[in-house]
Amino acid sequence: MQLTKPTAPLHFPDEIRMDGLTSDFKVTVEIYLLQASKEVLPHDVKYHIAGKKGNSKHLTPKSKVSELKAPRVQSPAGPHSVRSPQFQLHGYCIFALPQATRKSFTLNKVPHGSPL
Question: Which residue of 30, 64, 72, 102 has the fewest CB atoms within a 10 Å radius of its CB?
Answer without folding.
Answer: 72
